[in-house]
Amino acid sequence: MDFIDPHIHMVSRTTDDYETLARMGCVAISEPAFWAGFDRGSADGFRDYFEQLTAVEPRRAAQFGIEHHCWLCINAKEAENVSLSREVISMIPEFLDRPGVLGIGEIGLNKNTKNEATIFLEHLDLAVEHDQLILIHTPHLEDKYQGTRMILDMLCDDSRINPDRVLVDHVEEHTIGEVLDRGFWAGMTLYPVTKCTPDRAADMIERFGGERLLANSAGDWGVSKPTAIPDLIFQMRRRGYDEALIRRVVYDNPAEFFAKSGKFVQPVR
Ligand SMILES: [Zn+2]
Fold first, then answer.
1. What is the pTM of this model?
2. How far apart are CA 95 and CA 86, in angstroms?
3. Which of 27, 30, 115, 230 has the most other CB atoms within 10 Å of its CB?
């Protein structure tokens, strides 16, 4: 089955991963800007990173027939440095008109600090001013529930934000209900260490149905599995799910959400 991975950090993955993804049915991906495993020392470090996301990775993906899209921001971890964050945010508009840029992300919180919240709100201003979609990173483990509530409150307190143009990623059983109830799109991250397994994701699909629900691998430089979506497809087929529901979660929903940017390239098969 053709699928889209809406959240994967291919700058950290090998070219062999692109080939494997293509062989397994991946036709498009989107790559949010994120932490590189180390704190970058200057705004120029981010300029190079945005160049990589908007120019280098699309070429690498195209070799395997995969459409590459991306999101730009300074991530919540490095947002602790407010002055650096402001330099990066002021540079982002230079890149927003490039093909394949879907919006601002992945923004959010990491340790739920005041600085992170300040920079999160400044990213919302940037997204609104430039009419961009938003992709949200919610914190992991013990910080997830409180961090997700804080993020949803900040989004809902801003009357300029349309929840239908926001994807909230890394939802789990204790956060997914509120994300969907408030009208946002929700992304389940399949991950071997933290976050959720294909089995738990299938349970959430059973509970909440397929509307506004996406799945991603969040493959990055850490322990992660870029082919996690085929694992979910396998799990759903084992449970006897309708093919249309499977396709909705792994293809139709990401395509529908990305199309709101006006810049999503529908893969040609
Ligand atoms: Zn990520």
1. 0.96
2. 16
3. 30
> 106: helix, coil or strand?
strand
Ligand 1 mean position to 264 CA, how many Å? 19
Per-residue pLDDT of 172-208, as tens digits, reads: 999 999 999 999 999 999 976 666 899 999 999 999 9
| Nearest by Cα to 118 from 145, 150, 149, 140 | 150
Residue pLDDT, tens place only, 72-119: 999 999 999 999 999 999 999 999 999 999 999 999 999 999 999 999
Classify 19 as helix, strand or coil.
helix
**E strand or H helix at 26:** strand 26-32
Neighbouring-strand partners of residue 103: 71, 133
Tokens encoding 51: 């160049």
Distance from residue 38's CA to the centre of ligand 1 (Å) = 14
Cα of 83 to ligand 1 centre, how many Å? Answer: 23
Assign domain 3-259 one CATH number from 3.20.20.140, 3.40.605.10, 3.40.718.10, 1.20.140.10. 3.20.20.140
